[in-house]
Every structure is written in C-alpha cells, then in structure tokens.
Amino acid sequence: MVTLELIVVPDPLIMAEYEVLAPSCKGAEDGSITMLSLTGVEAPYKLTINEKIHLPPQSPLIVPAGVYTAVVTNEYGCFDKQELLVPDGLPLQIKTIEDTSLLYGKRLLLSVSSNMPIAQVRWTPATHLDCPICLSTEVIIKEKITYIVEGKTATGCVARDSVSLDVSHQPVRYVPNVFSPNNDQVNDVFEIVLEPVSFRSIDRILVFDRWGGLLHQQSNIAPEEFLKVWDGYSANEAVISGVYLYRIDYTLIDGTQESIKGDVTVVK
C-alpha cells in the first residue's frame, strides 16, 4: 500500500486590466478597448469580447460606443469576466455668425468655429460665395438669403448651423440739418454721407425755398461717400439765413428708385 499526501493549491486569481477610450465624437466608431495587463494566468489563454475571440489579445480593439463583455479564459477553464462601458464621444458643435442685415453690394465675412477639428466644410447654397468649401468665406450681399454650413470631422461626425442675411435699403448714413456757407472752411457745404456701393446713380437734387421756389438743381450725379448737395448759392448769389427744402432722387444698384426729402437750415 502506498499512501500519498496531496495538497490542493488554489489557482491564482485571474485579473485583467483594460483601457477604454471613447470615440472621437458622438456617433463615430473609433472608440477602443485595450488590455493593459493580465495577472494569474500564463499562455495559452484566450480573450473574447462579446463572445468573439480577439487576437492578438493586447492590441486595441476599435469599437463604437456601447457595453462590452470581456472574458479571459485559461486552458483549464478558469476565467476573468468584466463588463466594459465605452462611452459615446462629445457631439460635434459648429457655429457661424449671427443673422444680420447689410447694404446691397457690401461684402461680409462668414466664418465657422467648432469644438473639434473640422476636416470638411460645405456652404449651401453656393450663391454669391467666394469659397463654398472653406471655413471662412466672403459673400457679396445681393438678396435675402439663408446659408447652411455643414462641418465634418475626419472620423465622419457631422454638424450644421445656419445664418440668415437680409438686404438693407438704408444707404444714406447721415443727413445734417444745418450748415453755414460763410467760407470759414467749417461746414460750408450741405453734404450727406452715403454708401456709394449701394447706388447706381444719384438722379436728381432739388433745393427749394420755403415757398416752393426752385433755387438749385443737379442731375445724373456720381454717387460718392460725401455727396455735396448744395453750397448755399442760387443764381450765383448767396441765400439768406433760413430754412430750405430739398429732395434727392436716386436709383439703388438693384434698380429700386427712392427719394429722400427734408429741410436744412442755413446759418450765417
């Protein structure tokens, strides 16, 4: 008879450590699961993630956001099992300028900011744009329009924003109500301030006295930023101090015909 004394030694605890990375942005599929370390087991063993064998075990597994079951099993059936959460990435956010109104024919810079790098941009419609596939582009204001900008990351995440542009028909920036034609080089001429780019022509300028008598007229004047309306003379004679009426007829660049009327005071 042979007597043997056996000692049962428990298997060492199998323990795996993983690194979990979220996708680069919400909806992308470039998250990852990587085994960083493994203790309590020697080869041969296998790693399964969601019941699929992952080879080689310690290389990154590229995955979308979700919950994954990782199991390390040795040749004797001992195992380590863990539930791993791959969180979703942050949503891509892009922003262009606020809605605005601008004079016909003026140029405006459209730009885009975002919370992560943008690989592709597209503006629609492409009407009046210098570059419909650039992060920043200039537009010439010619009509009321809404632009939609779409940005896309290198990993395929997409976001959109929009800006509405309106055409302003207020091309006259400043009209004084008094001037002093006394040759002192200060405020000697009645002139108004315009946005020349908005005008096709200044068709007619008329100045009247308070009883409706015509004192001064011009026609077909080229639009200038500082448009000289009247120098305070009529028939080569200086007018007396008082209130006078004016009317300016003009055609905007889009063909709209308008007028401005008012009064101006001559002070000497």
List the helices and strands and how they pair.
Layout: E1 15-21, E2 31-39, E3 45-49, E4 52-53, E5 61-63, E6 66-74, E7 79-86, E8 94-95, E9 100-103, E10 107-110, E11 113-114, E12 120-124, E13 137-140, E14 145-152, E15 158-168, E16 172-174, E17 178-179, E18 190-194, E19 199-208, E20 214-221, E21 226-230, E22 233-234, E23 237-238, E24 242-252, E25 257-266
Parallel strand pairs: 9-15, 17-25
Antiparallel strand pairs: 1-2, 2-5, 3-4, 3-6, 6-7, 8-11, 10-13, 12-14, 14-15, 16-18, 18-21, 19-20, 19-24, 22-23, 24-25
Brief characterization of the structure:
Helix content is 0%, strand content 53%.
Question: Which features would summarize this protein structure in a list?
Answer:
five-stranded mixed β-sheet; rod-shaped; 268 residues
Written description of the protein model:
The chain has 268 residues and is mostly beta strands. It has no helices and 25 strands. It has strands at residues 15-21, 31-39, 45-49, 52-53, 61-63, 66-74, 79-86, 94-95, 100-103, 107-110, 113-114, 120-124, 137-140, 145-152, 158-168, 172-174, 178-179, 190-194, 199-208, 214-221, 226-230, 233-234, 237-238, 242-252, 257-266. Strands 17-25-24-19-20 form a five-stranded mixed sheet, with no helix packed on it. A hairpin with a 4-residue loop joins strand 24 (242-252) and strand 25 (257-266). The mean pLDDT is 92.
